[in-house]
Design brief:
Distance between the termini: 90 Å
Shape: elongated
Radius of gyration: 30 Å
Number of helices: 21
Largest sheet: 8 strands, mixed
Helix content: 55-70%
Length: 534
């Protein structure tokens, strides 16, 4: 009776590391890209899908091994057949039973994932099941045709990643599929290398891609695929989709050169396997390790942060230093612009005067009022509310923190207001870009390099922040939100992901720092009518 190790070897269980590492890469990628949705992630569905993928992989391995042996494709004299079924290491039917059992269990887990998660998972599940069974079985028998590599790329690239992302966050984007391409290519490379090694034995027995185009062209194709995989990772890092630390995948490049030098040696397949594993491991390390900013030493209880008040920027700095410490690495500071950083230098915009004469705005919609404020900001000079603010923001950034302005201005089709606001923040306070290019989110928030706009009062600041977090270069582990409005503080507290430490500061300094210059009702109406009708 053969031992368990013999079944493990003939089933090629070690190849499941390819799928396993790709699944880990998908999870790390989601932590980076879908950070803001963490509290609604469906981990149960993700686990079901992950196990189903591994079992489909095992089913494909074993059924393919059985079919190879049955058709006489494997040659007992080949250097790669030491632990293959053709040697009689285990009974043939046992391997077939393992494959069928793995396929059935994978199907059950796929159905469970669909019931727990989303019905959309049915499509990738059916495609994966069809590829698994059709790879070596009739009527298609894909592995014995030149399309075998294409099927492996689809199954272990876009299909694997799309299934995992869908199960975890309930949606998938074009960028997610692009991220999957390198891993599909690296897995396909292993199959192509196997077929290059077995070229002589496959000729006349199986019609593989290598037997169709020849060994030389196959090596050109293999090298092209691997370089495309590296290029996509580097491009995603350049475009801020991934961390720059992803450049570390280049460390594995020498393995490709070694494998090419040994292209006439059967060991080159093992070297390329090490290349694949190294590529995935470094990606996992970058996504889970270097992409996670340092957590502050002082663990902060969210409940203690609710009612912190500061009446000056000196107090703000003191509170932050006490709670966070000297190093601001991994901390994102979100600062309301109006009445916290700046104010419009005209008496008719001062808070007390607006409060006194606010009845004038009755009948105007919130959007009209916000548009009027936008014109005010465009046509009237902005003054710094506290001269000390610029030095505080500079200090935060020098110590590793990121700082962004946060406004509720209506932007609409014309982004001139937010463009000027973004420029003012960079010029007046030295705010460094958190994003390289402007973007507009599906919910209406506008995300400029140094400023976020909710595009009016319809979208709360909490919702806007939630939409913008996935677009940031680095996902913060600590956020400090400073605003003069209790409503905005509550909104951000409600929408902040559970796995992010949040400090909210209610800034009350404007009450004493903005000049108190009373205006008459007629003066107020004359000023605002101009901006409401222009």
């Amino acid at each position: 009776m053969p031992g368990i190790l013999s079944y493990v070897r003939v089933s090629r269980v070690h190849t499941l590391t390819m799928s396993g590492l790709s699944i880990l890469c998908t999870y790390g990628y989601c932590k980076l890209r879908y950070y803001a949705d963490y509290d609604i992630w469906n981990h149960t569905a993700f686990i079901c899908v992950s196990l189903a993928i591994l079992l489909f992989h095992l089913a494909t391995n074993t059924i393919s091994e059985y079919r190879d042996c049955l058709m006489g494709v494997d040659d007992i004299h080949s250097s790669a057949t030491k632990y293959r079924l053709v040697t009689g290491i285990v009974p043939r039917k046992h391997v077939l039973w393992i494959g069928i059992a793995a396929f059935i269990l994978a199907s059950v887990l796929g159905i469970a994932a669909m019931m727990i998660g989303s019905e959309v998972l049915l499509l990738p599940g059916l495609i994966g099941a069809c590829i698994s069974i059709s790879y070596s079985e009739k009527p298609l028998m894909l592995k014995y045709k030149p399309c075998g590599e294409a099927c492996v790329f689809l199954a272990y690239g876009p299909l694997l990643f799309a299934s995992c992302v869908l199960s975890l966050v309930g949606r998938v984007s074009v960028v997610d599929v692009i991220f999957a391409v390198p891993f599909g290519l690296m897995t396909t490379m292993i199959l192509l290398a196997n077929n290059i090694r077995d070229y002589e034995y496959d000729t006349g027995k199986a019609s593989t891609l290598v037997t169709k185009i020849g060994v030389r062209r196959s090596w050109v194709l293999l090298l092209t695929m691997v370089h495309v995989a590296y290029a996509i990772i580097l491009t995603l890092a350049y475009c801020d989709v991934l961390q720059l630390s992803s450049l570390l995948v280049l460390i594995t490049y020498p393995l490709l050169l070694i494998a090419y030098r040994k292209r006439r040696d059967a060991s080159m397949v093992n070297i390329l396997g090490m290349l694949h594993i190294g590529f995935c491991l470094i990606t996992v390390f970058c996504l889970f390790g270097l992409s996670q900013r340092d957590v502050v030493q002082n663990q902060i209880d969210l409940r203690d942060m609710v009612n912190i008040e500061s009446s000056s920027w000196a107090e703000v700095q003191k509170v932050v230093d006490e709670r966070v410490g000297t190093s601001k690495k991994g901390v994102l500071f979100l600062v309301d612009v109006d009445n916290v950083l700046t104010f419009t230098d005209h008496p008719c915009t001062y808070p007390d005067n607006v409060k006194t004469h606010y009845a004038f705005f009755n009948g105007q919609s919130a959007e009209e009022i916000n548009e009027a404020w936008g014109k005010v900001f465009m046509n009237n000079p902005q003054k710094v509310i506290d001269d000390y603010a610029a030095s505080v923001i500079s200090d935060w950034q020098k110590n590793g923190g990121s700082v962004m302005g946060f406004t509720s201005l209506v932007v609409g089709e014309n982004n001139e207001v937010i463009q000027r606001r973004n420029g003012n923040l960079q010029a007046m306070f030295g705010m460094q870009p958190v994003l390289s290019v402007p973007q507009k989110t599906a919910g209406g928030a506008v995300f400029y390099p140094s400023c976020i706009s909710t595009d009016g009062e319809k979208l709360g600041k909490g919702e806007a922040l939630r939409e913008c977090l996935p677009k940031m270069k680095s996902k913060p582990r600590v956020m400090v939100f400073i605003d003069d409005s209790e409503k905005n503080l509550v909104s951000v507290r409600e929408k902040t992901p559970d796995n992010c430490i949040l400090i909210t500061i209610h800034y009350t300094g404007y009450q004493t720092q903005i000049p108190q210059s009373p205006v008459t009702r007629s003066q107020f109406e004359e000023f605002w009518k101009q901006h409401l009708t222009d």
